[in-house]
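Justification of resources, computational component.

The compute hours requested in this renewal are based largely on the per-chain cost of generating structure records like the one below. Each record pairs the submitted sequence with a full structure-token output. That output is archived, and it is also reused by downstream analysis tasks.
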Amino acid sequence: MSLGNVYAHCNCCGRTYDDRVDYLEHTSYVGTLETGGLFEYDLELRNCSCGSTLSAKTPALESRSRQVSPLVTKNMQVASKNSKA
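The structure output for this chain reads:
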């Protein structure tokens, strides 16, 4: 199967996302892995409808302006609390 100009593809269920709009509308945001300036992009993590996590390159500045997901915020709070204990 040739994926051609597909924006993203889930290897778990085989779903393809034709473009970024399709990808954003049909996946849920998980978080962003910042590359710390090593690259001009970060990796945005989103869940496919099957539950598998996908990653896509996103411009570093764009990802830093995005809201942090509630799960990431909760993990940061727990880590902060544990470091003070």
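The chain has one domain: 8-84. The mean pLDDT is 79.
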